[in-house]
């Protein structure tokens, strides 16, 4: 049976959740899924070939991030990278307590590790965000001045729900002046925003392959030379003793090729996606009343549009759009059997009603103007139908 996503008429607008694997990335992976089975730690020819593939991939990732190859460590994805950065840096500090600083709009892969540390006695302080979801660097400076025991700051580079881009380099400069490590979850930023870590004060940065047309199950963590991080997976001496376990050679080859392609196509892709995002927004806001843009209007990802539709429940809209052949995501999450407002939108001051009426459209390279025009027409039809049903009772 074919999956719904295989249907040629479907329109996929959920690239922040995951992206399709680029055929060129698949080609780079196939030799290591069929035939190239050597263990990279072995010294025979098969092992050396696998090791060479990892070395090539590390160079590609480093080039995309503007870092040195020795500063790139492969992981199983963004979640592991975030956990390694947070738990690893805190453990390496040798402190049984201290302060941690983050924001209320982080991905759960950052917030939950921080909450665990908080439960163990560490103090957690969350910076506020404005109505667009952006942090004020002055607040970080003030918070660091108030607390002389800060071990780590972690701020997301670009928000996965609303696309807001944070002033990471400015925040990192403030941290460096205070001698405090800063980590950033750049899972949504890598491949969409230029990153030059050689010129940035950021100490640690997480990425994930499946957000930039690579495979699921592969990621990387940048750890600046000299930054103290304790490994969290113990065993062999893989990844220069930072992450034990036989390397996923095919996945690593995939993230390497995905990063290589992202670097080559970043500028052209950004222009295309910005135009498509604006086309989608103009089409919806120009033909529907009660449409609200969630996120920053200036500092945002080129591919992300989060919209609340008055008089419509987000989950119902998602289900109806899925039936109509459009894949997108809600700005809300299901928890404990009830629809809870998004923690990101709540932190931005969006009302519970509008937060539950939010839908995220995240665009990708395969989307076209024709697809976006078709999506606009279908969204308008579905929204009007749901509104009429709501007000008919």
The gist of it:
This protein is α/β, with parallel strands linked by helices and 393 residues long. The protein contains 12 helices and 15 strands. It folds into 2 domains: 4-20 and 266-391, Aspartate Aminotransferase, domain 1; 23-262, Aspartate Aminotransferase, domain 2, CATH 3.40.640.
Keywords, separated by commas or semicolons:
single chain; 393 residues; alpha/beta; Aspartate Aminotransferase, domain 1; Aspartate Aminotransferase, domain 2; 2 domains; 7-stranded mixed sheet; 4-stranded antiparallel sheet; 15% strand; globular
Describe the structure.
48% of the residues are buried. The protein has helices spanning 23-33, 45-65, 78-93, 108-119, 137-146, 168-178, 238-241, 249-287, 314-323, 343-347, 352-355, 369-391; strands at residues 11-12, 72-75, 99-102, 123-126, 150-154, 181-185, 204-208, 219-223, 291-294, 304-309, 326-327, 329-330, 333-335, 338-340, 358-362. The longest helix has 39 residues, at 249-287. Mean pLDDT is 94; it is low at 332-338. Helix 2 (45-65) runs parallel beside helix 8 and helix 8 (249-287) packs across helix 12. With 393 residues, the protein is of the alpha/beta class. A 7-stranded mixed beta sheet has the order 2-8-7-6-5-3-4, sandwiched between helices. Strands 9-10-15-12 form a 4-stranded antiparallel beta sheet, covered by helices on one side. A two-stranded parallel ribbon has the order 1-11.
């Amino acid at each position: 049976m074919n999956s719904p996503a295989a249907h040629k008429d479907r329109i996929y607008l959920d690239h922040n959740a995951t992206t399709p694997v680029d055929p060129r990335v698949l080609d780079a992976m196939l030799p290591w899924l069929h035939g190239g089975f050597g263990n990279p730690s072995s010294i025979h020819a098969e092992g050396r070939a696998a090791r060479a593939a990892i070395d090539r991939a590390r160079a590609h990732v480093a080039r995309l991030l503007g870092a040195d190859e020795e500063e790139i460590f492969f992981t199983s994805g963004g979640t592991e990278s975030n956990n390694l950065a947070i738990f690893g840096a805190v453990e390496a500090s040798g402190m049984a307590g201290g302060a941690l600083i983050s924001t209320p709009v982080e991905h759960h892969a950052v917030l939950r590790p921080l909450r665990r540390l908080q439960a163990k006695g560490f103090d957690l302080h969350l910076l506020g965000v404005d109505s667009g979801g952006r942090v004020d660097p002055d607040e970080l400076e003030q918070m660091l001045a108030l607390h002389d025991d800060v071990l780590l700051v972690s701020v997301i580079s670009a928000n996965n729900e609303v696309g807001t881009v944070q002033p990471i380099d400015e925040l990192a400069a403030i941290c460096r002046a205070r001698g405090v490590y800063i980590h950033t979850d750049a899972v949504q930023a890598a491949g969409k925003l230029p990153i030059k870590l050689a010129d940035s004060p950021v100490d640690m940065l997480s990425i994930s392959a499946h957000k930039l047309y690579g495979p699921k199950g592969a990621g990387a963590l940048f750890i600046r030379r000299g930054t103290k991080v304790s490994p969290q997976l113990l065993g062999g001496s893989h990844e220069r003793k930072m992450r034990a376990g036989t390397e996923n050679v095919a996945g690593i080859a995939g993230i390497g090729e995905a990063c290589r392609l992202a670097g080559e196509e970043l500028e052209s892709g950004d222009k295309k996606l910005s135009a498509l995002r604006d086309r989608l927004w103009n089409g919806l806001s120009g033909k529907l009343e009660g449409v609200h843009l969630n996120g920053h209007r200036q500092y945002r990802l080129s591919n992300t549009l989060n919209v609340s539709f008055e008089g419509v429940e987000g989950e119902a809209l998602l289900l109806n759009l899925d039936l109509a052949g459009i894949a997108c995501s809600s700005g809300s999450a299901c928890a404990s059997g009830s629809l809870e407002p998004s923690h990101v939108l709540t932190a931005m001051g969006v009302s519970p009603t509008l937060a539950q009426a939010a839908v995220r459209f995240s665009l990708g390279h395969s989307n076209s103007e024709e697809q976006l025009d078709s999506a606009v027409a279908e969204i308008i039809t579905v929204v009007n139908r749901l509104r009429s049903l709501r007000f008919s009772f």
